[in-house]
Please model this.
Amino acid sequence: MTDLTYSEEFQYSHKNPYHQRLEAFSQFVFRDSEAEQYRGKWNSDIFKKEAPLILEIGTGYGHFLRDYCRQNPEVNFVGLDYRFKRSFQLAKSLARDEIENYRYLRARGERIEFIFGESELDQLYYFFPDPWPKNPHKKKRLFQEGFIERAHRVLKPGARFYIKTDHRDYGAQMIRLAEESKLFDVELVSLDLHREHPDFWLNSYPTKFEKIFIAKNEPIIGLVLVNKK
Model:
């Protein structure tokens, strides 16, 4: 069966009740394909200011989004996740915050080239994604050759793509694909980011899952890729 997720013909289809409940936060939340109408126009039409445009895929509980936006009010930040209930809970929490330099997408990461235009993004973050550890499910992992190509398109020349994971198998897959890719240079690869690079700036923004892994003394795999456009 042909995977339409990366195609123009793709349409979201679901009956999850949290989809409708998210409508209450439409001032900062875009659901499904709602964000795709702003392709190439995020700074001008949504944020209404020219600033570095940053995307985080897999926003989860929003720890990185909150911390980064508070400390970097000059950026335009877009968080994206596909979980329904978690997205709703995060939206409720964000509605009580005073930060304003972000938007949140309940959408699929595979759709980034339909959400953002050519060379529109200044940075991309992908932290602790679902590893889909069972062999029959590994094809569901987002970081595949097709996704790398789309990340290359939407990122500006020289833009950086930051990745963190605790999962050794998925981490090894991402490292291999990154090193084989002709679209990105590998600027940093670490199998134990916090011990090997304790002063790396990204270590100062631990996510909820990252704090759990650190407490268990589990190593964090880190990757930094640079777009070769």
User: Anything to note?
Assistant: The longest strand covers residues 155-165. The first helix runs from residue 17 to 21.
